[in-house]
Amino acid sequence: MRVDLQGSDLWKRFHEIGTEMIITKAGRRMFPAMRVKISGLDPHQLYYITMDIIPVDNKRYRYVYHSSKWMVAGNADSPVPPRVYIHPDSPASGETWMRQVISFDKLKLTNNELDDQGHIILHSMHKYQPRVHVIHKERGEELSHVRAVPQGDGTRTLSFPETTFTTVTAYQNQQITRLKIDRNPFAKGFRDSGRNRT
Amino acid sequence: MRVDLQGSDLWKRFHEIGTEMIITKAGRRMFPAMRVKISGLDPHQLYYITMDIIPVDNKRYRYVYHSSKWMVAGNADSPVPPRVYIHPDSPASGETWMRQVISFDKLKLTNNELDDQGHIILHSMHKYQPRVHVIHKERGEELSHVRAVPQGDGTRTLSFPETTFTTVTAYQNQQITRLKIDRNPFAKGFRDSGRNRT
DNA sequence: ATGTTTCCACCTAGGTGAAAACTT
DNA sequence: AAGTTTTCACCTAGGTGGAAACAT
Q1: Which residue range or ranges hold the T-box domain (chains A, B) (predicted)?
Q2: β-pairing, B20-22 with B108-110?
């Protein structure tokens, strides 16, 4: 089985600067969104595909403006309720999954520990790593948004180092802001002089 | 097993006037959309839920303005490629289906016999009846958008007389137009004097 | 000080019927 | 004359970062 990250060039441009992702109470999408292509599945078996996001380390960070760098600012906050994003096409046959690019663009990040929308709960100012899970569906098995992914022979877990990010409630590095505005269609209103009329 | 039509009051108001549905080349949604609630499924079995739309009779119609009535205008045009709308949540467990209102609002009608978007192909100026199919998923079975629904013990077919309609490319009865504008949120721009400024 | 929340103008994406143009 | 296609202003629905207000 093989999983390829799509849009890897864009991820690398963000990664070189130090990717930041906004988290809000209501939930905010990631940009870029994770998109993968899978091969080597059994076309006639059923699989769930899910994503979770794990801490990269046990630290809390702060952004130092004059050096444009993230510095350790202490130990991580206490753990947060674990959440799993189950790709909405799940469960589907290997054939179905392999035919398409699998996009996680509807996944949302929140800093609300009491969230009841099924969004992924994270701490602000921490570093995280998204992971993709390919889970062979055994008969009768059901997945939950709020329980850890089942481990074992039927589960493969993949992650891509260039997709790590730091959570923020407002962008710290202006180069990140600029890249987001430049590439995210929904931020088009902030491009060029589009907003220079107030 | 039991299937209840939701929004039945609105359907009846349309039906009393004589429901019309626009069909276009690109595909047009139905308004109202079919919405049903199902009970009596086996919570742990898998089901597909699908919709097709069959001719009510073998006739072609025309609208007579001065009597505000649809009159037979000859025999039906030659049959059209059969299409099935597979509800996007399919397949799902009986438990999942019974927990929600099942909406067919994304289903689209077209008069383009060469349509490749998977929309339901119909003749203009004909009378039709939508049908809901609840299909018990046998292992390995796959459904197709372009083949008839499998018949047999594993399939239940339901229809609601108040949801019959006549296809048009432009509304014939102005009472239908008024009801649509009044109730469809997307037609809000035509309400009251909202458009009386040109 | 530093980080968070709320509100908002500006977008994307796409569903309406009207009107004009087109077809037969 | 009758029906169809195309285009369009006007909506719904919801994803952006900025700015100001708020919190600690």
Answers
A1: 5-192
A2: unpaired
The integer distance in angstroms from the CA atom of A153 to the C1' atom of C8 is 50
pTM, two decimals, is 0.87
Q: What is the 3-state secondary structure (H, E, C) of A14-75?
A: HHHHCCEEECECCCEECCCCCEEEEECCCCCCEEEEEEEEEECCCEEEEEEHHHCEEEEEEE
Give the tokens for residue B92.
């799902």
Asked whether residue B197, judged by its CB, lies under 7 Å from any atom of the DNA or RNA strand D, the reply is yes
Return d(Cα B176, Cα B160) in angstroms, integer: 19
Which nucleotide lies nearest residue B73, CA to C1'? Answer: D2
Residue B114, burial from CB neighbour count under 10 angstroms (0-12, 13-18, 19+): exposed
pLDDT per residue as tens digits for the range B136-193: 987 656 677 666 667 777 899 999 999 999 999 999 999 999 999 999 999 999 997 5
| Cβ of A44 less than 7 A from strand C | no
* CB contact at 8 A, A163 and A14: no
Helix (H) / strand (E) containing A164:
none
B21 touches strand D (CB under 7 A): no
Residue type, A104: F
What is the tens place of the pLDDT at every residue in A23-51? 999 999 999 999 999 999 999 998 999 99
Task: Name residues whose C-beta falls within 8 Å of residue B16's C-beta, 6 or more positions apart in sequence.
Answer: none
Q: Indicate the Cα dihedral angle A84, B93, A1, A119, nearest 10°.
A: -20
Q: In the structure, how far is the CA atom of residue B121 from the C1' atom of nucleotide C18, in angstroms? A: 25
Burial of A84 (0-12, 13-18, 19+ CB in 10 A): buried
**3-class DSSP assignment, residue B128:** strand
| Among the listed residues A168, A189, A190, A180, the one whose alpha carbon sits nearest the alpha carbon of residue A21 | A168
Indicate yes or no: strand C within 7 A of the C-beta of B180: yes
Evaluate if the CB of A124 falls below 7 Å from strand C. yes
Question: Using the CB atom, is residue A193 less than 7 Å from strand D?
Answer: no
pLDDT for residue A190 is more than 60 = yes
